[in-house]
Amino acid sequence: MTDPGGGEFRSGFVAVFGRPNVGKSTLVNALVGRKVSIVSDHPQTTRRRITGVVSMEGCQIVLLDLPGFQKPFDSLTRRMQTTVDDALGEVDAALVLLNASETFGAGDRYITQAVARAGLPAVVVLNKVDLVDGPTLDVKLREARDLCGGDVLPVSAVRRDGLPDVLARLTSAVPPGPVYFPEGQLSDQPLELLVAELIREQALRLTRDEVPHAVAAEVGSITERTDRPLVEIEASLIVETESQKAIVVGKGGRVIKAVGSGARHEIEAILGVQVFLDLRVKVRKRWRRDDRYIERLL
User: Fold this and answer.
1) Cβ of 177: how many Cβ atoms within 10 Å?
2) Interhelix angle for 106-118 vs 134-148, to 10°?
3) Least CB-packed of 151, 189, 194, 284 within 10 Å?
4) How far apart are CA 55 and CA 63, in angstroms?
5) What share of the chain is helix, strand, coil (3-state, %, to 5)?
C-alpha cells in the first residue's frame, strides 16, 4: 500500500509499557489529540487495554495503553497483568515510558528487559521532564540510556513537549501495512466503557486514597432522546463495603453529586450534546475477586 505522497504506507500496533503512574495514559491522550484513557495519580487507574489511533500522512499508529507492570494479588490485578504480558507477543513495536522524577528500579529494568527479549522495536521515552531541573535531567537521561542500552527521548506529556519526535520514531518502528481504522476514528472503545471510565476517573479524583482500588463503574443504559438533543445515562459506582459507599456518597450526597457533575462535563465534551446522568452507588462485596464480574466490567 502507498501513501498519498507516493511512498510506502506504514502502520502497526504499539504497546505502551511502563510502571504504574509513569504517565502512559497522559501520553497516549496527548499523541491521539483527545482523551481516550482516563488519567489519575493513583496506581491501577488503567485496568484494561485502551486503543488510541494516530493517523498521519503515510502512517497509522495504533497505541495500546496498558495497565502498569505489577505483581498480581487478586483476580483483577491478575487479569491486568495478563493483558500486559499478552501484548508482548501481539504488537509490532513498543513505547516504553520511564519517569524522570523518580529513581529507576527493578520494575523499570524488568520492563526494558522483557521488551528486549520479545525482540520488539522499542522507542524509550523519559516522561515528566517538566518536574526536574536541567542538571537532574542530564543525569536521568544518562541513567535511562544505560538502563535500556539505547537512545531515550525526553518528553513532557502534560506540556506536550517532545511529541513530534516520539511520533517520528514510532513511524520508523512500525512496518509497512494497511489502514486499520478509518479516518477520524480515534479509538475502538465502546461508548458504554468510555462513559464508565470517565465516571470512575471523577470518583478517583474526589475520593483520593480512601477507596480508589475498590471502586468500579458500570453503565446500565445510554438513551438518545428523539425530541431534543439530550442523552440520558444510567450508571452505577461499585464498591465493596458499606463504609466505602458512605465515602463515595459523602455527607448529604456531596461527593456523588460532584462525581456526577464532573463526569457529565467530560461526557458532554466527547458527545457534543447535553447529558443527563443518573448515578447511583452500589455495594458488591469482594468484586475484585469475582472473575465473572470482572469480565463484565472490563
Assistant:
1) 17
2) 50
3) 151
4) 11
5) 40, 25, 35
Q: Give dist(CA 45, CA 240) in Å, integer.
A: 17
Residue 260 belongs to what H/E stretch?
helix 254-271
What is the set of domains in the chain, with CATH numbers? 10-173 (3.40.50.300), 191-297 (3.30.300.20)
Q: Which three cell numbers stand for residue 221?
A: 443504559
E-strand ranges in 141-215 read: 153-154
What is the C-alpha to C-alpha distance for residues 45 and 296, in angstroms, rounded to an integer?
A: 17
pLDDT for the residue 81: 73
Quick one: pLDDT at residue 71? 67
CA dist 136 → 9, 112, 130, 158 (Å):
39, 22, 11, 19
- Taking the chain (298 residues) in consecutive chunks of 10 residues, what is each chunk's mean pLDDT? 65 92 92 85 63 95 81 72 79 96 92 92 97 96 95 97 97 96 89 92 85 88 94 96 95 96 94 95 92 82
Q: What is the 3-state secondary structure of 118-148? A: HCCCEEEEEECHHHCCHHHHHHHHHHHHHHH
Q: What is the DSSP letter of 8?
A: B
Q: What phi-psi label fits residue 294: left (phi over 0), alpha (psi between -120 and 50 degrees) or beta?
A: alpha
What is the pTM (predicted TM-score) of this model? 0.81
> Which residues lie across from 56 on neighbouring strands?
59
- Spatial contact of 238 and 219, defined as CB atoms under 8 Å apart: no
CB atoms under 10 Å from CB of 51, counted, come to: 20
